[in-house]
Structures are given as structure tokens and as C-alpha cells.
Specification:
This protein has 16 helices and twelve strands. By secondary structure, the chain is an alpha+beta fold. It has two domains: 3-33 and 49-149 and 452-501, no CATH class; 154-416, Transposase Inhibitor Protein From Tn5, Chain A, domain 1 (Alpha-Beta Complex). Strands 2, 3, 4, 5, 6, 7, 8, 9, 10 and 11 form a ten-stranded mixed β-sheet that branches. A two-stranded antiparallel ribbon has the order 1-12. Helix 1 packs across helix 2 (52-76) and helix 2 (52-76) crosses helix 15 (456-478). It is globular.
């Protein structure tokens, strides 16, 4: 091993040590004050490029990214690189950093990334803040790297990063109770041609009109302060098509694979799953019981007919299980029944289910249109793992059951607020999944930044989406003053723990 290779290896080991420190909360964030040049007066012929608040905001964000990005890319750089190392210009860490910056700065496509990140001026501004980007890769280089890399390596590093955050003392201090996890699926994109043998197929009566699409089963962690953090993704994908077998992968099969991965990440107990109506079936509930997980599952009116029949019978036998409550300005009536027997499967497996319904009424004012107020109502139903009582039914339904909508909000952000969930970025399946995990990781990092205490005043003025847009437009167009040093593990007289510095706050 040459001296240059030994130096690179020592630097790599140092970055890994820093990564472990940052994700565990042991590393420190140190900011050195630096005298700035006086801003040029905003007068005719010589106005400043940005105001002082935008510069300060971009500087703070860059300081956090200078801690997070090297640590994360150090983890990613351990991915096996199949390329000839003697002929490459950019190593795996640099390429993955570039991929993260694509999604952090909300690039809509590889072409836009080349246009906006590949310019000399942009590279000079980014390399001043992020020395890892000694040279800027081309987006096609990233695509070739993801196409030839084992997807399992990327997923494994992604899970290590998420696991490090979940195990940090700061996170445990923010989320002292159970892990509330919502699971739901969403279509990514579809095409009229079979672009990959892993794509799902939706048949059409007309020949040649079949639709081929990608579908993802995602999970998010809903924290006690209402913030949702992306967790694991399980693709709903076929191993092969055209082999005469009409059976395809489905969301329910993907759920069991995802549940096994969540079991490794969180263990048994201390988990509450929030599930849609498609998961209200025997195998899914048995999986939750086996893992010791709590659950609140939506039950549709046309599902599990035997359960509904027994529920109505028990409600007549025990009419006292009714609670009237007010949730804000909405009047609610809860009714529940415990210990409903449900059998499924060829061996008649028996489960004890607890079912609660909520009838909600409210009056919707029509102040803008000047019309008369309109009375509205809706109906909810959940299967609960816990026995329902007067003391817990209100909290379980409103604080837990209805929190499932946070995953819909997460999908909305990733689809319509800059992460381009529905863009494939590549027709190679492994590369597409690599881009998907980079997008999830970028969403995770942006959540840490925008929900940091130091950005609360900017969020109040701009909102989360506006803050991201203004932050990255400032960094890409004007650069920042880089006065942040790498984290140190010893001596913390003027420092704050990195993850502690990123303490999430409730917008409420």
C-alpha cells in the first residue's frame, strides 16, 4: 500500500469514526466566529446579492451539512465499487455526495442537475463549503454507478444511518414513548411499455394496452411532536414477467417483508403500527401479535363481515360502551366492542379483535362564499390491539388512529414539494431504487435542518417548503461564508452535541 493509499485509508477511518459520533450524539458542533466584510450599501449600481438574513440562514445550514454530509458519505463510501479503480476520477463517496445534493437542492431530473450543479461557478461555491466535492461528477456517472452497484449495499448503509439516529440519546429524549410507525403504499410512475422485468403489470382488455408501473411500500416514524421522519422502503416488484405465471407481487406480501426489516430495526414491543384498511386481515394482525406490536388498523364497512356482525350483536348486548366527546368543534360518538372472535385460513386460526367506531358531526361555515353553514358528518372504524375502555378510547382514536394521515402528508411532500417521487431518474431497476433511497435520505436531512431550533424564526416567516427553496437558491447562486470546522470528540466548552443541536421542535 502506497503512502497516498495509507493516507486515504486513515482519512476514511477518521470519517467513519466521526460518522458514528455524530449519529450517536457524541460528536460536537463548534462554530468559530469570523469577522465578515461590511455589506455593500443597497444603492443604485451596487446592491448586495442577498440580504443578511438569507446569508445567515445559508451559513447555519451549511454548518450543519458540513457535519452531516461527510459522516453520511463516509458510510456510503464503503459500498462496493465494481469499477476499475485505476481509471476512475470520482470515488464512491464523492458520487453519493453528488446524488444527495441533487435531492437536497430539489433537482427535478439528471439534466437539470447537470445544468445547475455542473457549472464552474456553482462548483466553486459548493466546493468551498463541501471540500469532498473536489470535482463535480456528471449525472450520468452517478447513474452508471447506481446501475452497477449492488442495491443491497445501498439499502444496508441507508438503514445504518437511520438506525444510528434512532439510537442516539437525543432522539430518545425527544421520543420517550412508543415508536409510532405508519405504513402505506404509493405508485411511483407508470409506462405503456415493459421498461423492467420487475415492474408490475396492470392488464387491459385491448391487446398492447397493458400498463407497467413501479409501486413502493413506505414507512414513516411519527414523533410525539407530530413530525414524520422517513424510514424504510420495500418495493412491490416482480422477480420476472412473461414466464406464464400470472401471479404478481402485491402490497400485502411486501408488508411482511417490510415488517421483518422493521423487527430488526426496532425489535419486539415498543412499536405501534398505523395501517390502512387493506391490512385488516388475519395474517397481518397475527404478524403484529407475534412481534408484540401494538396496532390501530382502519376497518372498512365491506371488510370482515363476520366481525361486523358480531360487533353489532355485542353493541346491543352491552349498550353502555358508548362515549360522547368533543374534539375541537366536532361532536363525536364512540362505540366499541372487545373480544370479537375472528377465524381465518384453512386451519381456522382464531384471533380476538377489538373494534371501535366513531361518528363525527360538525358545522362547516361558509364565510367566504356567504352561504348558510352546512352540517357535515363522517364515520371512522378501527381495529385496536388494546382492549378499549372509557379511559383510553378517545386518546387511541384521535392521537394514534388519526395520526396515520401523516404518511399521506409525507407522500405529498415527496411528490409535490421538490423531491420528485414520481420521476424515475433511470429505467434500470437498481439505479431507480438507488435514486429513491437518496431521495429518502435527502428528505431526512432536510427535516433535521428545517426543524432545528436555530431555524424556527425562518420557518415562521417562510414555512418549511419556502425555507428549503430560499436556502438552496442562496447556496447555489451566492455561496456562503464557511466558518465551521469538523466536529471534535474532546473538549466541549463552547460546543453543543450535534444531534442535540438538531433537536426537533413542535410547530404547535
Amino acid at each position: 500500500m502506497t503512502c497516498r493509499e495509507k493516507k486515504k485509508q486513515r482519512q476514511h477511518d477518521h470519517d467513519i469514526k466521526i460518522a458514528d459520533g455524530i449519529l450517536s450524539g457524541k460528536a460536537a458542533y463548534i462554530k468559530y466566529e469570523q469577522k465578515k466584510k461590511a455589506a455593500q450599501g443597497n444603492r443604485k449600481g451596487g446592491g448586495a446579492n442577498t440580504d443578511s438574513e438569507n446569508d445567515e440562514m445559508a451559513e447555519r445550514a451549511t454548518g450543519l451539512l458540513r457535519l452531516l454530509l461527510p459522516a453520511i458519505t463516509a458510510k456510503m463510501s464503503d459500498i462496493y465499487d465494481p469499477r476499475d479503480q485505476r481509471k476512475i476520477t470520482h470515488n464512491a463517496g464523492t458520487i453519493m455526495t453528488y446524488g444527495l445534493l441533487m435531492f437536497l437542492s430539489h433537482m427535478s431530473s439528471r439534466r437539470e442537475a447537470n445544468r445547475r450543479l455542473g457549472g464552474e461557478g456553482t462548483h466553486a461555491r459548493l466546493s468551498a463549503a463541501f471540500p469532498e466535492l473536489a470535482t463535480m461528477p456528471h449525472a450520468d456517472t452517478l447513474d452508471r454507478f447506481l446501475s452497477n452497484t449492488h442495491l443491497d449495499d445501498i439499502v444496508e448503509r441507508y438503514e445504518e444511518i437511520i438506525s444510528g439516529f434512532l439510537k442516539s440519546p437525543a432522539f430518545r429524549s425527544m421520543n420517550k414513548g412508543r415508536y409510532i410507525i405508519a405504513i402505506d403504499g404509493s405508485g411511483k410512475f407508470m409506462r405503456r411499455h415493459c421498461w423492467s422485468p420487475h415492474a408490475l403489470r396492470r392488464k387491459n382488455d385491448e391487446p398492447g394496452k397493458d400498463i407497467y408501473y413501479a409501486y413502493m411500500l413506505d414507512s414513516v416514524l411519527i414523533m410525539e411532536n407530530g413530525i414524520s421522519i422517513p424510514l424504510l422502503t420495500e418495493p412491490v416488484a416482480n422477480d420476472s414477467l412473461g414466464n406464464g405465471d400470472d401471479k404478481q407481487d402485491c402490497e400485502l406480501r411486501a408488508f411482511h417483508r417490510l415488517a421483518d426489516r422493521l423487527l430488526v430495526l426496532f425489535g419486539k414491543g415498543q412499536v405501534t403500527l398505523l395501517l390502512d384498511g387493506i391490512y385488516a386481515n388475519g395474517p397481518v394482525i397475527s404478524k403484529c401479535n407475534k412481534n408484540g406490536w401494538d396496532y390501530m388498523t382502519v376497518l372498512k364497512s365491506d371488510s370482515l363481515k363476520s366481525v361486523w356482525d358480531e360487533y353489532y350483536g355485542l353493541c346491543k348486548a352491552e349498550p353502555s360502551n358508548v362515549l360522547h366527546a368533543m374534539h375541537g368543534d366536532r361532536a363525536q360518538v364512540y362505540s366499541w366492542a372487545n373480544g370479537i372472535e375472528y377465524q381465518y385460513g384453512n386451519n381456522n386460526h382464531t384471533l380476538k379483535l377489538n373494534l371501535v367506531t366513531c361518528h363525527e358531526q360538525w358545522e362547516e361555515a361558509k364565510t367566504r362564499s356567504g352561504r348558510q353553514p352546512e352540517k357535515k358528518s363522517t364515520h371512522y372504524a378501527w381495529l385496536s390491539s388494546e382492549i378499549l375502555k372509557f379511559s383510553n378510547v378517545f386518546a387511541r382514536c384521535n392521537n394514534i388512529g388519526r395520526a396515520r394521515w401523516w404518511i399521506e402528508s409525507s407522500f405529498h411532500v415527496e411528490k409535490h414539494q421538490g423531491y420528485y417521487f414520481g420521476h424515475c431518474f433511470s429505467y434500470d431497476w437498481d439505479a431507480m431504487m438507488g435514486y429513491h433511497h437518496l431521495m429518502k435520505l435527502a428528505h431526512f436531512i432536510n427535516i433535521l435542518i428545517t426543524h432545528s431550533k436555530n431555524f424556527s424564526k425562518y420557518v415562521a416567516l417562510e414555512g418549511y417548503q419556502g425555507l428549503n427553496e430560499k436556502l438552496w437558491s442562496t447556496i447555489l447562486q451566492h455561496g456562503v461564508v464557511n466558518n465551521v470546522r469538523p466536529p471534535k470528540r474532546r473538549g466541549r466548552p463552547k460546543a453543543v452535541g450535534t444531534i442535540d443541536y438538531l433537536l426537533l421542535y413542535s410547530s404547535a
